[in-house]
Amino acid sequence: MAGLPRGKAGRLTETLEALLASRHRTATEVATALGIHAQTARYRLRQLDRMLGDRLDDPSFRLHLQLSLRAARLRSDFPTTSSQ
Question: How many CA atoms lie within 13 A of 17 on its CB side?
């Protein structure tokens, strides 16, 4: 999410986390987990797809993302939706 404004990076990061945690990886599941409208989730998922492409279909890449996100949470530079 480097190069994105902090607020946008935070929203995409939380969307990515919800996607990785979801069972079927659907926009509806992500929207429910985040408490957002399904269309908003679809928009964010399209942005993530443009950034990450079909690598999200690779289980080892998804694991790498999950571990990276968890490690980032332990650092103070983790993007949040409330940070601008």
Answer: 20
Question: What is the SS3 assignment for 40?
Answer: helix
Give the sign of the dihedral formed by CA 71, CA 76, CA 78, CA 82: positive
CA distances from 46 to 26, 39, 57, 74, 78 (A): 12, 11, 14, 27, 22
Give 39-67 pLDDT, tens digit per residue. Answer: 999 999 999 999 999 999 999 999 999 99
CB neighbourhood size of 2 (10 A): 5
Cβ pair 29, 38 in contact under 8 A: no
Distances from the Cα of 53 to the Cαs of 7, 22, 38, 58, in angstroms? 22, 18, 20, 10
Domain extent listing, the chain: 6-73
Sequence letter at residue 26: T
